[in-house]
Each structure stands twice: as C-alpha cells, then as structure tokens.
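Hi there,

I know you've been waiting on this one. I reran it after we fixed the sequence typo, so this is the corrected version. Both the input and the resulting structure follow.
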Amino acid sequence: MDNTEVYRVRRPSLIPLLVYISLLMGIQLFQIYNLNYRYTSSDNLVLSCLLYGQAILCFIVAIVLVYRIFTIRRVVEIQIQPESILIEDLGIEAERINDIYIKGYFSPVVGIRPKVNKFAPYKLCFNFLSQKDEDEIMKQLKAWAERNQIKVTHKNFSRWL
C-alpha cells in the first residue's frame, strides 16, 4: 500500500438546505391554512390533499436532514490510493468514477459522482478542515484524477440527499 495519502476532511453542512426546506414547509402550511379558512367547498379537496402531501414530504426531508446533521457531519478520513479513493469506509475505484466536482471558492465542497449515479452521493462529498489541508488535498486529488483520466470540473453540483 505504498503511495497512499490519508487526509482528514468533513462532510458538507446541511443547515442551509434544512432552512430552505423549513421555509418551504412553512409556505405550504400557510397555503393550507388560507385554503381551508377561505373556502369550505369540496372542490378544493384535491388541492388541499396535494398541499398536505407536499407539506408531509417537506417534513420527512427535514427529519432526515436533522438526523444527518447530528449523526453524519463529523470529521472523516480520506485515503487517496493509486487506483481508488477511500472515504471513511466507502471505497470507490477510479474506473467507477464519472466526474469530480468542486463547488465554491472560499470553502469548496468536493463531490465525487460515480458512473451509475446522476448526482454525487452525500457520502462522497466533503470539504476541508483548514486552508493548508485544502491546498494539499486539492493538489493530490487533481493529480490522482489526471493519472486516472477523470474529469475535474469547477461548478455547482447537486448531491443526493
């Protein structure tokens, strides 16, 4: 196992997404309240059911996000090996990686998108603990990607919840 580099990184923050989902859920509940307060006819039953469904979906997503904030967001280790990357206990070989995305400049988030996924899974996303770690890991990651012919793109990307 020579040529193996081990770095400490952390999972990206989910708090902005939680705030957005909570705001969306609040808007849905406000619309349900206005719909039921102003109209009492059975014509609005379908609309009311759709609004309740959306609010319940937002509530479920908010619970998942709160769970992840308290359980998953911790410091993890990433190992850059010659033919694969190991993030915590999840290893992914170079031939299974489609793209590596980098989002942001001051506190960049790195996402690794496997070929079988449309989005980068949350477990394959990370950001850096310090500026020194960021520079060192970024150089190693870009050199590793170049050796394995993996495209590194600086852009906003979506990650799977």
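Quick highlight: The two ends are 33 Å apart (CA to CA).

Best,
R. S.
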